[in-house]
Amino acid sequence: MTLSERNIFFKAGIGLSILCLIICIFASIKLIPVYASIEASIAHRSEGISQLFIGQFLDARLVAANGSIFGMILVSLITLVLIYFFFEKTQSPEILFLGIFAASFSIETLRLVLPLEQMYEIPSLYVLLSTRILLFARNFGIFSLFASGIIAAGYVVQSYRNVVLFIIVPALLIALGIPIDTQAWDSSLIMITGYVTMFRLVEAALFLSTAISFFVAVWSKGSQKYILIGIGSVLAILGRNILLSADTWAGMSAGLVLLAVGMWLICTRLHTIYLWL
């Protein structure tokens, strides 16, 4: 893949993030005033890292979940803009997949379809479709981050298109095959899905492997800067996971800080590594 082709993807990601940000702003204007009445219909409390601690002491607030979505889109946009300007003329094998990981945050906008259904009686088919697209984007982002880690550790990629296609297939199969309960949703504004424990274990294994891969790159690439990139990947992973389930202001704030700092560490350290190449 040439630099110009890769940069087209980054531009498309920036455009997607801007579109999702605009949609999120206008949808939020409609939804925030009615969240208090919708909260009464919450069937389940969201589960996640932050919920084990913060969720035990604070009540769910859908406006905080809305804020988490807005924060993820904003981080996606800022990250993709920085990646484009930092790496526009710089070849970096990892950066394409990190860009895909960042772009996947914007698709969280689709979570707002669920409360909009409560207001406008949107057919459940569209809500189900948006949930499957959202699950695909999340898995696509996870697998892309994993790919960036193993590439950093020394795996040589002959064709980036083949790697992207290889990532798309399992992400699509999971999104289409996972059972979804269209009658129940949780406080993070997503429908209840099946096999939650199994997929969390797989996700944890992938994220752990990704972080280890960046630390392995310290030895394989001979650069101590990969230590900070590995730390950044851990922070970004934690922040993303917290934001996906956050339904309190405390969870949203913690997740947003971790995600932003993690992505900043990854992008800036990679930039210094490839700056003079």
Please give a structural write-up.
A hairpin with a 5-residue loop joins strand 1 (180-185) and strand 2 (191-193). The protein has a two-stranded antiparallel sheet. The longest helix is centred in the first third of the chain and has 29 residues, at 3-31. It is mostly helical and 277 residues long. The chain contains 10 helices and 2 strands, in the order H-H-H-H-H-H-H-E-E-H-H-H. 45% of the residues are buried. The model has no long low-confidence stretch (mean pLDDT 90).
Mean pLDDT figure: 90
Question: Structural class of the secondary elements?
Answer: mainly alpha
- Biggest sheet, in brief? 2 strands, antiparallel
Overall number of strands: 2
Helix content: over 70%
Oligomeric form of this entry? single chain
How far is the N terminus from the C terminus? 18 Å
Unreliable sequence segments: none
Strand order of the largest sheet: 1-2
Write the layout of secondary structure elements.
Elements: H1 3-31, H2 35-38, H3 62-87, H4 95-103, H5 113-120, H6 124-152, H7 160-177, E1 180-185, E2 191-193, H8 196-220, H9 225-245, H10 249-274
Antiparallel strand pairs: 1-2
What is shown here, in short?
This protein is mainly α and 277 residues long.
Features:
277 residues, single chain
